[in-house]
Amino acid sequence: MKIYPTPRFSRRSVVRRTSALAAGLALATGGSALAACGAPSGPAVGSAEKPLVMAFTPSADTQKILLSGQPLADLLEKETGYKFKTEVPTGYAPLVEAMGANKVDVAWLAPFGYAVARKKHEVEVILGTVRSGSKTYPWQIIVHADSGIKTLDDLKGKRFAFGDALSTSNYLYPAAYIKEKYNLDADKFFSNVQFAGGHDKVAIAVYNKQVDGGATFGPNLGQPESDGRSRALSSVPDIMQKVVRILETDKIPNDTVSVRKGLPKEVTQKLKSGLLAVSKTDQGKKLLKDLYSIDGLDEASAADYDPIIKKAGLVGVDIEVAAGIKAAPTATKAP
Hints:
D-Maltodextrin-Binding Protein, domain 2
């Protein structure tokens, strides 16, 4: 499996990506609002004619996610009586965009993606995930076992892979850590930076020596070998031996289950109670474990994710710019 390198990035390029998506969304949602004026109410949300669209963050192989995601939706259908349609968008930002356009009703959002979606679209978190009894998780930096690289200092001036520009553990927190420790942006600390995609793709890029190091989510409590590398085990069985962890730090609020603005309150409440009920069944526990290594679901609030805003500021990502609420500053050429 190959990971094709993406262009060298800068903070401005990250802002441009999210701003462009936000501009497209503004056009789409504006048209939808005009079309909705005076229109009949139509089928009920959650009916066969208008199923609830549940989308999953593409942090691993799409087909693998759907293998657990679709049966989970089937259990929810039995618990709530609602009909569901499952999707895995092509990236973190398209998922945020889809929620704002009312094309996704409920989403399993990464923490940073949730922070952006909340700012832009008033998305509401209804539950947080739990792993090994914890509502937080670490991130880690990985290298090839025979690289001779032992510390983050050793990676200075080398090639590095992040995952997605809206990922908390394989972009935001590692980039903020580098800024705090070295007072350097990631693209100045490393000689070349790539955005590989999901955690599995970062791990495979390191395994294939396409990059010297990468960032993924770290191990859950009590499960030292359950981390971003394990997402690639089906493709690369020896990845846990050939790719090793050199740094693990910080605690990130776990990923969310969030709903779009405007979803009827009774639907939101029934969905929340249904998810909690399903998460306590044997089959539900297995599906959540297979989906994102989730052990359970628990209450969560918007305030739980406020630390992410601070990290975003450290790496020069303005949440309001990323969310498309205000324009990115215009770059000027040096004289």
